[in-house]
Structures are given as C-alpha cells and as structure tokens.
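Protein: Putative sigma-54-dependent transcriptional regulator
Species: plant metagenome
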Amino acid sequence: MHGAEHFLPRNQILSCHAAPIRSPRGDILGVLDISGDAQRLHAYALGLATLCARQVANRLMLHAGPRCQQLVFHHQAGMLETADRGLLLIEDGRVVGANDAALALLRTDWRRLLDQPVERWLPAWRTLPASPAPLRGHDGQALFALLRQPAEPPAGTPVWTRAQADTPASPKPPGPATPAPAQPTRAPAVRTDLLPPLDPALETRFTRSRRALDAGLAVLLQGETGAGKEVYARHLHQASRWHAGPLVAVNCGALPDTLIEAELFGYEAGAYTGARRQGARGRLREADGGILFLDEIGDMPLTLQTRLLRVLQERTVQPLGAGRAVPVEFGLVSASNRDLAAMVETGAFRADLYYRLQDCRVDLPPLRSRADLRAHVCTTLHACAAPAAPPTLDDGALAQLARYPWPGNYRQLQAVLRGLALFHPPGSLIRVGDLPEEIQACRPATAHQAQDASSSSQAAQAPDIAAHATLRSQQSQQISEALARHGGNISRAARDLGIHRSTLHRHLARPGMPGPIHR
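Structure follows.
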C-alpha cells in the first residue's frame, strides 16, 4: 500500500509492503510488514517481505511433530534447500500440512490438498530416498524430491497436527542445555522463473494490475514472444487474493480446435466417442478459487470465444454432455503477442470478448529495454549455474550480451546462459569468443542506423494509430445501437453486448459517446 492509498491521512507518508505468515494448514498466523518513506519507492521491499514470511512458515513446517514425514520437492534439484521449495507434511499417507510453494507446484489449493492421500498428487512418493531424486507428478510434470523421516522437534518447539487445528501445543519443559548442532548455511538461489519488480514503472503497473485482479477485473497482458507474460501472471497469482487457489494455465494456441472445448469446459462420462470413462472436470472448473491464465488468447477459435464470454459473464460452466451448469469463481489473466484490437477490426476476434478481457491492460517491455540489463544477465547466469559456482563474464562478453537485441527476450537469454553455464567450469572466465556466433556478430548501431530505425518505427506505428481510431469508431457505433435497442437502459445494453455494466459506463464516459437515458 503506497502513499495516498492509505485511508488515514497521517499514514499517507508511508509505503508499506506486507506478506502473510501461514500455518501448515493454511491459516494466517500473522503478517510481516516492511514500511518506509513513500517518497522513496523500494522495489525490493515486497519481495523481501514475501521471502521472510515464507521462511518463517517453512521453519514451522520443519518442526511439525514426531509423526510427520516431510516431502521436499521442486522443478530444479538446486532449489530443494531454498525458501521456494515445496514442502508437504505427511501422516499415515495423507497430507496434513503444506506451504504455499507446494500449492503452486502442484497447481492446487488448501481445500483440495489437505487430508488427501499423497498418491493423488505424487503417485511414487513412497519410493523416494533421503537425497534428491527424480519424481513425476500426477499430471506428468517432472520434479526433483526427497523424503525426510519423522524426527523429534527440539524442546519448546510448537507442534502442528490435524487434531490441534493449527494451534501450537504447549512447550515441553526445558531439559538440560545442550549445544545445537551447527547447521550449514546456504545462500538462497535466485529464481529465474520469476520477474522481480525492477523499477518504479514496472512496480506501478504490477500494483495496478494486482488491484484490478483483486477487484474482479480481467487483466490482459500484451508483449513480444518470450517477454515474460506467464511469469508476470504467476507474480500476480502469488500477490493477489487468489494466491491460495491454483494457477491454471491454458495455451490456447497449443490445442487443436477439436480438443480445446473439451479441455476448457470438461465433459461428462460418455459425452463423445473416445472420451474418458470418468469424464473430465475441465480447466475452467480446475481454476475455481484461483486464477485462470489464458495464454495466446488470440489463437482461440471464434466459436469458442462465444462460450467463453458467457462463462465470464455468468460465472457458470456447463461441461459437454451435462444437464446443468456449475458455478465457478476465479481471477482471469489473458495474454497475447498479437494485436487483438486489429484482430477485432478484421473480424478475427470478437469485440465483446475483447472488451471483457481488457479491464486492465499491461504492456510488458522487451528484455532489450531494461535499464539494468547487465545486472540481470549476471543474476540469471548465477541462477542457471546453481547450485555450483557460476562462470564469470569478462567485460567484453558482458557488453556484447547487453548489446544483443534479444528477439526471443527472456526465454532466449535463459537458453544462452544455460549453455554457457553448462560448458564452462565453475569460476572460469567467459570471453566474447565463447558466445554463440549470432551474438558475436552483433555490432553497435551507428547514429545513422539508429535514426533509420527510429523513422521505420514511427512509420510502422501509423497504421496502428489509424486502426485504433477505426476500432474506437466501431465500438461507439455498437454501443449506440445497443442503447437504442434497449431505450438507453444500461443493464440491458450491457447484457446485449456481453460486457459488465461498469465496463459500459467507462466507454460512455469517453468524449463523443451518447448519454444513456436510464443509468
């Protein structure tokens, strides 16, 4: 909460960043807050508060009682000793506690996970050793995991069990003082799959989109391929009120037209030839209580856009072959690297769905525009080499990497740095000649080339500006016709257009729009 967002005027001098501390059963035990001067926006404060709160919750998990096994897992073996590892507490083969990282990795929520058999999520967990080993999740995702057997907690440590419903047990009477064994310390690895808030501009956009998501508005992410749209969506999930639920990601461009409807809406048993005998819930129902992330939304077939619009408007899903609709509630984040406004103009994308998706639009900048690109390259190289010591980039190699335009953005950068970390021993020096050939071939742009590029960019923007004006005109005409059909009634016109009343009010507030008769 920043500055004027505080209710009390005397607190508007503060910028506050807070994160909840949760028990192993998901209850909020407290909140860790970092407050500072609102005139100085500390981009790292929210991440630091979240990390500290997660460390406290993980410490509670580690002292969970004498009968609990501890299952530790993550996508990367080097992350099993960091604050971002998933932790499950297991008693009699059932999950009795978890941390928020485990929920994110398993793509579920507290209600679906707690007190359920571990086999439902990690079928082969019983064969795990006490050292990192590969493990497949229930949905086929590749993980690394280890299993720790029960151990008595230190005297005076709160014990968490199902029966106590997250209430700490009375501390044991202190015994003879014995020196605690020294625990090796390990520097936390950097998560390369997250986009940390880097500057005030990005943090401002993130705060706006998070508040929009919390208010029930849809968020639309636009940016080049590889610019970190899914990573941004995962940040929103962790920071929003939907964080306890799953983040269900659907790549609309990766599914064939014949399967995407069944994948999204689910189906009843025997709904069609070849369907699974037990049916399928569908991704929309799986997202209930969490966030639905529709990636490459511009590739969704037109016929399916109509059904999706109805779901978003009515918040109900009717699986294929079902006789009744099922209520759902989730946050919606969509993403595309295509110009959806231009697609609306050509008829390739429904205008009413476009209005519904862009309650809050966020344009993600490409990697090459980052002011701290050199520092980000070094941080990412360190993460790619973890847990081993990373190689070192000499000044020439670092300058060449910063000069390269990175058409594939973050995805391409990680691929290049993973290769460098793999083929160069820890602590070795990477020079320009060690870089991939296409990066070595990149030369600094001359002033004349920069001017030509700027002129080309301005020329390319002209059709976009004209297209935007045409789209505004088309929107105004559709809204005017809907208001005329319903005598100026806002509610009926909004239902006819397939958008929310508040969205229609915003369109009517624009200059040149007709005023309704009935508000």
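Remarks: The chain has a mean pLDDT of 77.
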